[in-house]
């Protein structure tokens, strides 16, 4: 109890980056979801925690049936690893971020409040590409910890291990390879009952010396080596007797060593091999050793393609051998967690998908979840509405009327290719029409599908090139403009698929064409974006006139051109520096929004004042890291409103699509680690609504408001309400109140995020007088 009180006091004093559950809906297919380090809560039945592929921590209260986000890290530069349940309500994990050095470190999360605290060790002078490798926290006092970093200085790689006994206020360097025959550590551990007893499992070295287990009894001041010449990785302590330790070997390729599981019953002074007949594989690494805390005689060992389990303290054991490299079964185990409430139940994380076993690993099933990596999404809406998104280089198609889902060209996770992933384009006004460009060193193919991606007809082949854009002629669905980085733009006429006609388009400058807009009434009227310039053609691309008056030059890049469906003379462009608009067919441009990396902009077809734009994620290698963001306007671009980063969980996204209704828009985002998510924005005007006539699921009134806001639900149940300020900070949390007191809020613009019982989410903009 004293330890819990101690860390709670630190949480109160030091936590400064509070986050909340995001208001989004997960819309991906669960067959391809990937989450890691699934961990049972020791105190709450059916509660699980897990890590996404990137920067999110997830929680389930129904043993994996559904999930919610309980922590999101801004920036999308770090990847979470090694999630552990410290004690009631507190999780630990580490962040690997080779490009954003300050994000590396050991983190603790208060699952109740979402508050976070970080232990950051010193950065060696001149270090680059810093990344956490392993860590250990003393079980009885989290202020005692070991952190293991890898880094590079110049052309040379190195690693270092630090130790703290005061919560990271002071650090001691306890291991540097240069001082110990240049042998790199593989893993670190602190004895569960002695904060000064440290272990380092050592690995390879550029010299002839490698391996060995290092043990210190004085907090790393001196070390004693055990079993030199053998490389080790996994370390595990008996939950009731810390003198009983299990130790697993690393890759047997080092010096011809044998794969073995070692056991000590005297705190590491002596070691014996547990005789297990291991099968030969590729790397033959013992990755993970896990004791069942409820029954310590049960132990699970995860190897490359083998699972070994004992239920009687190694008097006997079962060995389950699996094929090497399957995409949907066990391969290269990374973590295991025994249920504290159900004997035999254990979650196993392999390198591919999460697995659930109810018989101690003898059999298991894949745990469906929506958290995949996706790079593309598109919407088709006409007589029907169809949603598409990329998964594992293939495409998933969902009919939003029937909810029927199809998957095409999905590449198994165990299959690797040196070719970039395919490029997809969904033709928004032609139901079933997709374009796909498949890069290959043997010849890259642009194909067209008219049956939702089931089949493709080849249109164009080139070599060693990258595609920039595809735009179908709105007046002839058999003609498409395609632009390539090296080869430039071409017009492809596939009226006769057996005799496709390709016409090159001469560019007016040296910049690549990134987008074109073809007038829906006149195919000869074309606007083209090339670099920082806009060009206009009235003869179908035979000649061009520059129309860039008012646009910035230099490093600006124009990514998207759109025409207002209500005003023929009005166009808007999304650029690297913001949104620009013309109302005189490109003669003059004015900037309506200033921001970075705006890649897409779309007008509503229902209201001439509504539009949405997307800021895509930029990774740190290409400048300061930025999260994806949605911006929208309800006054024709006079003002743009930024949806708070927290509202979409600081996701990374390279593609968004929009489905407008009369007073709202569903924004679909393909994300780095949450799959396809949906976020709904209310686009209603800032007026007190006519409640009896409004068809929105939720109505917030009065607006503007001074003292209270009321929430009207038209037959939809409210689950939670969060209010954000204009810079994305949460200022109020509520459950399901119909009236909220806002008298303590300062005057300004706020966002009311409402979640319903179905998991759908809505955002309402209000003004506080």
UniProtKB/TrEMBL annotation:
Residues 1-22 form the signal peptide. InterPro entries: Secre_tail (IPR026444), Sortilin_N (IPR031778), WD40/YVTN_repeat-like_dom_sf (IPR015943), Xyloglucanase_GH74 (IPR052025). GO terms for biological process: xyloglucan metabolic process. Keywords: Repeat, Signal. Residues 700-766 form the Secretion system C-terminal sorting domain. The keyword Lyase does not apply. Pfam families: Por_Secre_tail, Sortilin-Vps10. Residues 213-319 form the Sortilin N-terminal domain. This is T9SS type A sorting domain-containing protein.
